[in-house]
Amino acid sequence: MRTGAANNPATAAKIAAILIVLALSMRAGIVQAVRGRLTITTYSSGYEGHLITFPDTSTLSIDCAYGDITTTSHFHSDHCAACDYTGQYHRNNVSPGEYLYDKDGVTVQVVAANGRVIGQEPKDVPCPASDENRMSMGLLVRYGGFDYLTAGDMTSVIEKPMGEALASLGVNVDVLKVSHHGSKSSSTLDYLQTIRPEYAVIAGSATQPYEVTLDNLTTAGVKTIYYAYDYYYGYGYPVFRANGDIVIATDGVTFTVSGPDFSHGPFPVDDDVPAPTPTPGPGPGPGPGPGPGPAPGPGPDPGPAPGPVQVRVTSNDLSAGHRLAIDVTLQQIMDRPFDAYAVIIGPPGVFTMCFGDVLLPGVSPIVRNMLFLPGGYEGRLLDIPVPPGVQGDYQAIVGLADVGAKVTDAGSAFMSGTANFSVR
């Protein structure tokens, strides 16, 4: 790969220093921003069964599933539990507010157990209880902006205070595992409107979804109700019959819902937050003046539409002592392997650098064999004062190229963005 010669070694060294900061900042920013995937599998058997797979590939099971960490919501057989088999964590040995998992940005928190909700003191309840369903353990799984709530067969008398407690903590539920298989003993409209779920999953077959529950879910704004088990009821409602296991996958920024023969999404997390309403401008001014003048010429060229990689600088016109900040935004999910490059091309005759190469070893590419970047990723690559003696026109380029591809210029990248700026 070729690089232009630096006619002014001192100036070249200063610009190279800028490049080093840019490249290493990009490396740190991408590594920090890239999240592994969290998946939640709901099994389609007649029993309840859910398995969470964390970014580090360890697992946590809920009810009828097997994982590195095992949990039991309550002591009923369709949740694979009895008083003589409880699993590692169950309703009677946890306290509301306790974390069962906290790693890599993922938390699994107990938000209800034994008739108490987060913020309340725990209590001991015999096993079995007179109302075992009501005592169910509720778990909130959080990853970035993604929130998943599951609460066994919990009844509405506990769901209501649990929902109010979650709302007070600012939780907007992305996916709700509907309690008690959609029974009419759970999922009141008031509760659902408090936690505001966007999507819902119904599992198990000990009972089946009631029309009142489906009405409540629909009225509360749930976009799709996924059936893991193929219940008869649900026609006329926004029900999707998965005909198999349901897998929810998220990077904390978006999530998908998929099964044996379908894949929905990606959906943005918490996308029910209303967009800001534009402020109307002032009303019309006074009436028209004299007749029209000459016809206007063509308007300014709007330039090309923004691409999937957007690069921005603090200002297009800088001088020594000003701060140079460079930001990048990735507009779409990148789920194919790639190498990442970030370079600055300096003024001809002072310092010129071909795309993807540097005068110092180990900086090109800045990231190798990256497997995934979330859509909507934003990062600041550089924020430094402009050194003296580097006047000229510059271009910052950020590009993604196929892993191991021979990169000789900007066209070698399958996706790139640029920003121009000048130093005076």
Structural features, described:
There is one protein chain. By secondary structure, this protein is α/β, with parallel strands linked by helices. The chain contains four helices and 25 strands. The strands form four sheets. Strands 6, 7, 8, 9, 10, 11, 12, 13 and 14 form a nine-stranded mixed sheet that branches. Helix 2 packs parallel to helix 3. The longest helix has 25 residues. It is elongated.
Features:
424 residues, alpha/beta, nine-stranded mixed β-sheet, eight-stranded mixed β-sheet, 4 helices, elongated, disordered N terminus
Order of helices and strands: HEEEEEEEEEEHEHEHEEEEEEEEEEEEE
Biggest sheet, open or closed, and with what strands and sense?
Answer: 9 strands, mixed
Distance between the amino and carboxyl termini:
30 Å
Oligomer: single chain
Helix share bin: 10-25%
Q: Which residues form runs of ≥5 with pLDDT under 50?
A: 1-34, 271-305, 349-363
Strand segment tally: 25
- Mean pLDDT rating: 77
Radius of gyration: 28 Å
Number of helices: 4
Structural class, by secondary structure, is: alpha/beta
Shape field: elongated
**Strand percent estimate:** 25-35%
